[in-house]
Each structure stands twice: as structure tokens, then as C-alpha cells.
Design brief:
Layout (H helix, E strand, L loop, with lengths): L9 H11 L11 H19 L27 H10 L11 H10 L2 H6 L2 H13 L11 H9 L5 H15 L5 H16 L15 H13 L3 H13 L1
């Protein structure tokens, strides 16, 4: 199904599709399908903010330069949200742990981006990319960072399980299935289960589906055998 990017500058869409999308590799948990989902969710958050369906205050726009702060004639920029989401994981080809920094560097050194966005827009987008990781201790500097960070949180618990498993196999291809499932279980418990789940702190907008997913993983964290059974069932499909 063709994505609906009608809110975005067609030249930006064409460039991202031709030059950025192909740079995402196979299904390692952070491939092109994930990027397109983050784009879709980012644009949805931005649209809901612009339509007043997500309530905001002046505090939400702290950190933005004056020329980018929304007012009655200027709203959240869809092009910027699209670009941030498209670039946010691009640096994984160079450095997994520091991919957020590498991804921001790719953006800042991209000639097309420099020709089509102002220096202030590029700075805000780079900050948002650097701020998107769930493991970051600090909150994002601007609302664009909060948008992509929130959009980076999947809500389908089975997709999350499969992505985490695929990412483990990408990092450790020699592990057995049981070893990979054990790693996946521990990773998901740390990230999504219970009051200390670090990913839960990176959802900045009301999202009932996300809350439902957190509750599901909190329940599953108490029964590792049930998790293992469901994981094996998903892998067998």
C-alpha cells in the first residue's frame, strides 16, 4: 500500500524515497518498515497537535527559535516531522550505540536538506534526532523531539517481540533460538514492564494503545514461560 504523504513537500518526499529509504537495510528490527511506521505516527501526532486534539501550552514549545514557534499562522511543520522520522535510525549502519548522533550528522551534512531547510530548522531537526532514544535520561529539547520519541514507541506487543528478537539475531547471529528468546524477554521486561520501564517515560502524548501494550508486557514479565511459548508461536508463523 502506498503511503499517504500528501501533507509533505513533494520534492522532500521524492528525495527521501530515492536517497534515504534505500539506505535502510534488512529486517533487523530497525528496517524500512519501522521507519515508515515512525513517520506515520509522527505525522499523526503533528496533525492532532495542529488540530487541537492534543492540548498544548507555551511550555511545550520552549526551546524552539522564535521563527519556528507555532502561532495562529504557523503550526507544527509536517516536513520537519517527516525528515526527522526518516533520518532518526539512519546511523545504525555505522554505530549502533551512538546511532542517534551519527543520524543527526547525516542530516546536517546533507546538501539537499541544507538547500531546502533553514539553519534553525536543521538545528531543531538534528536535536530531535539526537533526543529520540528511549534510553536517553533527559527529555527532548523541543516538541519535535517529543514527537519522534513518542512515534518511535510501537504499540503492537507482538510486533515489538518480533523486532526485539530480530535485533538480537542481527547482533548475535550465532545464538540459539532459546538464547535469543531469553535475551528478548530480559530486554522487553527492562524496557516495557513495570513502573521502572524506561520506554514508558518517552511517550509524551496520550496514547491508550501504548498504555495497553505496557500493561500486557507487565503481565507477561511475571510469567517467562508464557512469554517463551508465545515467542515460539510467533516465530513459527
Amino acid at each position: 500500500m502506498e503511503e499517504n504523504y500528501n501533507l509533505i513537500n513533494p520534492a522532500v518526499v521524492e528525495y527521501i524515497k530515492a536517497q534515504i529509504f534505500p539506505r535502510y537495510g534488512g529486517d533487523n528490527g530497525h528496517g524500512l518498515d519501522h521507519i515508515k511506521n515512525v513517520i506515520r505516527r509522527s505525522l499523526d501526532f503533528a496533525k492532532r497537535i495542529n488540530e487541537g486534539k492534543i492540548k498544548t501550552t507555551p511550555k511545550d514549545f520552549k526551546g524552539l527559535p522564535k521563527e519556528l514557534k507555532p502561532n495562529k499562522n504557523r503550526k507544527i511543520d509536517y516536513d520537519m516531522c517527516f525528515v526527522v522520522a526518516a533520518f532518526h535510525d539512519l546511523g545504525r549502519d555505522k554505530n549502533q550505540k551512538l546511532h542517534h548522533l551519527v543520524s543527526a550528522g547525516y542530516l546536517l551534512n546533507d546538501d539537499f536538506m541544507a538547500e531546502n531547510f533553514s539553519r534553525e530548522q536543521l538545528r531543531v531537526m538534528a536535536d530531535a534526532i539526537m533526543d529520540h532514544r528511549a534510553s536517553n535520561e533527559l527529555d527532548p529539547l523541543t516538541i519535535y523531539g517529543r514527537i519522534v520519541s513518542s512515534a518511535d514507541r510501537d504499540t503492537d506487543y507482538q510486533d515489538i517481540m518480533l523486532r526485539a528478537y530480530a535485533y538480537n539475531q542481527f547482533l548475535h547471529p550465532d545464538r540459539t533460538e532459546d538464547e535469543s528468546i531469553e535475551w528478548t524477554y530480559k530486554k522487553i521486561c527492562k524496557k516495557f514492564a513495570g513502573d521502572q520501564a524506561y520506554s514508558a517515560k518517552k511517550m509524551y502524548f496520550e496514547n491508550p494503545e501504548f498504555e495497553k501494550m505496557l500493561a500486557k508486557f507487565t503481565e507477561m514479565s511475571k510469567n517467562p514461560e508464557a512469554f517463551k511459548t508465545e515467542m515460539k508461536s510467533l516465530l513459527a508463523k
